[in-house]
Amino acid sequence: MAHTLDNEFINPNSQIKSPPDKDPMLPCLFSVEQVKKETHDTFTFYLSPCENKISFPFQPGQFNMLYIFGNGEVPISISGNPSDEDRLVHTVRLVGPVTRAMKNLKRGDVLGVRGPFGNSWPVYEAIGNDVIVVAGGIGLAPLRPVLYKLLSQRDKYGKIVLLYGTRTPEDILFKRELEQLRSRFDLEVHVTVDRAQQSWKGNVGVVTRLIHKATFDPLNSIAVVCGPEVMMRFTALELEKHGVPSDRIYISMERNMKCAIGFCGHCQLGQTFICKDGPVFRYDFMHTYLTKREI
Amino acid sequence: MTKLTINLGDKATIKSSDIILLFNALRSAGYSVIGPTIREGTIVYEELTSIDDLPVGWTDEQEGGSYRLKKRSDNAFFGYNVGPHSWKKFLFPPSLRLWNARKNGNNFQILPENNDTPKFAFIGVRACELHAMAVQDKVFMNGTYIDPVYKSRREHAFIVAVNCGQAGNTCFCTSMKTGPKVTSGYDLSLTEIIQDEIHYFLVEVGSEIGAEILNQIPHESAENKDIESADRIVEETAKNMGRTLDTNNLKELLYNNYDNPRWDDVANRCLSCSNCTMVCPTCFCTTVEDVTDLKGENSERWRKWDSCFTVDFSYIHGGSIRSTVRSRYRQWLTHKLATWIDQFGSSGCVGCGRCITWCPVAIDLTEEVSIIRLSNNNSESLSSDKSDFREKHNH
Ligand SMILES: Cc1cc2nc3c(=O)[nH]c(=O)nc-3n(C[C@H](O)[C@H](O)[C@H](O)COP(=O)(O)OP(=O)(O)OC[C@H]3O[C@@H](n4cnc5c(N)ncnc54)[C@H](O)[C@@H]3O)c2cc1C
Ligand code: SF4
Ligand code: SF4
Ligand code: FES
Questions:
Q1: Same domain, B179 and B128
Q2: I want to staple B189 with a disulfide (CB 3.0 to 4.6 A). Which of B11, B204, B243, B293 is the partner?
Q3: Three-class HEC string of chain A
């Protein structure tokens, strides 16, 4: 039954409990080291702590609350390499007031950071298994740390598959890195776009159509899926059709967040708080909610 | 008047005219004394300057969507039921500055608030309200993160509880097992006894500090007849609850009824005004606001009470998750009575009845639940294979 809030149903072993020794609503200051334009509306920010010697360990899937002076604070996943604890990397799609204000950030500018919050993708549970990484749009950013982690310990995993879908070829994130990944022999990469001009030689169509192209052993696989809710739902259905059990599929949920520490109530989804019980959930637990509207 | 040394767990009596001495003792111990007082026709909780501020001789008449003060035939200090305020406004302030950011070129500094902890003495806390505090304790002090403002205020608060001498028409604490008898979480607890011409309080001592305070005022050790009188008063109150709520399998009931047509019915009446969440002693949702000065050099971050009844509450890029009133009322009720149990190990409702009284259109959660229960039972008996389907569906 899916109605018990058992850790088992969410994400075993990956609940991170590290009570901070200061007021959890107080941000730390970080300065912008570098800004990289990924696409017309997506930027990657490389940040380093204003106070020296703060290291920033995190697990793939965790997020921070980023505060832009006078504009507000929003949850953004960490998109960098978990083995690099000295700087923080975030990839942001500009959609509204706070994220758009980030566009003006330049090298040397300061912003506030609270975190890391939330649980992680099942990178430890996946050891010994094939891993299927499925990303839609900006959903690739929270999954990039998973790829770094898997590849840093490549021999611990079976096949690794990356399936990525986005709107148009111009919207492809981390292009250079994807090219590099594609050229590796120990990794299978498929990319698709919703629509493209004639010059695009790649796949056109939704990301779920890439699943049949990939080779993996469905009963010994872990799938990690991140993207818009509908995309995650259809991807999970398709994976199930290909024989992946629903308790081996993980998704990352998004809800409005004002605190990230379980106080503000905004991120509730049924009996969960996305900020502290998630954002990563096992699909067999979450799917009852995904099929209901306005929960 | 004899003065004897009283200890934790003891019972004593004090004369009604000596209540003023309790105030004085608390004040000289450095507490700001908060209690019931009349403002604009309602009994609210505010700082009291003297015991004359208490609603002596007043009571309230409550019903769905209505509240009225009425004179009592006696001079009871605590002869009313709970009003629109709850103690949460002191422990969990409606608006709180979290910090202040000061700009300095392309850099800025964050200055934390120096929140001095006020020392509150709460007078007249009811059993359901003590349970409501315990519910909020779990939210703010029992998780991975701790709310420092709540914690310090809570830990410093002195609590004078009162056993209810009457039940309101919208009360249902017996259903929620939260009252009317005060059982724990107090420093001193009072039962107001008025028999013929005698007016006094039975006092129970719930903490060492409670004993210290009581030792400063004249009291006598309680006799069996005092204890019996007090028990009888509370028993009588328990028998007169205005409302009831059947909590049997309530969580499962609501989890199985996300699609009950009753939600559409309540959506036609609910104004989505948020009153129910503001008056509820357990509701804890907040939002944050940034207030920046005209020059753009100073920006303050404020935390404010928020409500799941607002459309913005569930906004994520592209629109609100709960854009209909149906889904917002369902969220509120299902949270209070069901998901809360999975989140925090107890119901989020203590049966105080405030949301019923203060709903402008008299929506009554006990009624909504009983109608959902009725229709659930009917539909279950109509189609016996439905539960089967649901089991598979949920798996
Ligand atoms: C756990 C988590 C991780 C995320 N990771 C990323 C990421 O790596 N990169 C990225 O570009 N975006 C990410 N998002 C989405 C991002 O938080 C929103 O795009 C952002 O809040 C929009 O804010 P805005 O003020 O620019 O726009 P608006 O859409 O105008 O938002 C106004 C306010 O609504 C709230 N809000 C709006 N959309 C969201 C949302 N999707 N999730 C939560 N709150 C929202 C915020 O409080 C925001 O300030 C993540 C969201 C969550 C919950
Ligand atoms: S839901 Fe209503 S009755 Fe229950 S505690 Fe809140 S205000 Fe009181
Ligand atoms: S139930 Fe009543 S008090 Fe609550 S939001 Fe609806 S109209 Fe307002
Ligand atoms: S973001 Fe505030 S409770 Fe989860």
A1: yes
A2: B204
A3: CCCCCCHHHHCCCCCCCCCCCCCCCCCEEEEEEEEEEEECCEEEEEEEECCCCCCCCCCCCCEEEEEECCCEEEEEEECCCCCCCCCEEEEEECCCHHHHHHCCCCCCCEEEEEEEECCCCCCCCCCCCEEEEEEEHHHHHHHHHHHHHHHHCHHHCCCEEEEEEECCHHHCCCHHHHHHHHCCCCCEEEEEECCCCCCCCCEECCHHHHHHHCCCCHHHEEEEEECCHHHHHHHHHHHHHCCCCHHHEEEECCCCCCCCCCCCCCCEECCEEHHHHCCEEEHHHHHHHHCCCCC
